[in-house]
Amino acid sequence: MSKTKTQKTNPAVLRKLTEDYEAACNAWVAELLRMWELDACYGYWADGTGNNYIYGDCGMTLSMDEIVYCVTEGVSEEEYWERHEYMLEALEYNLTVPSIRAWHTGFEDAAGLRPFHRTTEETFEKFRQMKRDLEDAIEAEKKGQKF
């Protein structure tokens, strides 16, 4: 099998592509902040520009995919935070975490063929109670008590 030679990209072209990408990423973020009426001075790119944007002391982290989706589909800040809270609880119990698209549309795929199952608040409350019961049982065992 023969190897094909790959030409290196001209540094000036790379610089221009990077500048254009950064400008586009910043424009998407600016539009999201405008939509959600947030002040830009509280946000920053976690890793330069273009991957993860962190906003405020609350640590709201948005990927570029989430930013684009929220802007193009008109996802409200409230809906984003609902998903964020759900995501934190789902992660605690090792449940599937929905993408912003799945949360917004109710489907795991763009075609709308696979519905996304959302764990109910009642189920989460049962999980929380079971966790408390387990923690109590462990503490009792540590103290040598029966439960």
Would you spell out the secondary-structure blueprint of this structure?
Blueprint: H1 11-35, E1 43-45, E2 52-55, E3 60-63, H2 64-73, H3 77-92, H4 100-105, H5 121-142
Antiparallel strand pairs: 1-2, 2-3
Structure description:
The structure is a single chain. Helices cover 54% and strands 7% of the residues. It has helices at residues 11-35, 64-73, 77-92, 100-105, 121-142; strands at residues 43-45, 52-55, 60-63. It has a 3-stranded antiparallel sheet with strand order 1-2-3. 8% of the residues are buried. The protein has 2 domains: 7-74, no CATH class; 76-147, no CATH class. Helix 1 (11-35) packs across helix 2. Strand 1 (43-45) and strand 2 form a beta hairpin. It has 147 residues and is mainly alpha-helical.
Summarize the structure.
By secondary structure, the chain is mainly α. The chain is built from 5 helices and 3 strands; from the N terminus they run H-E-E-E-H-H-H-H.
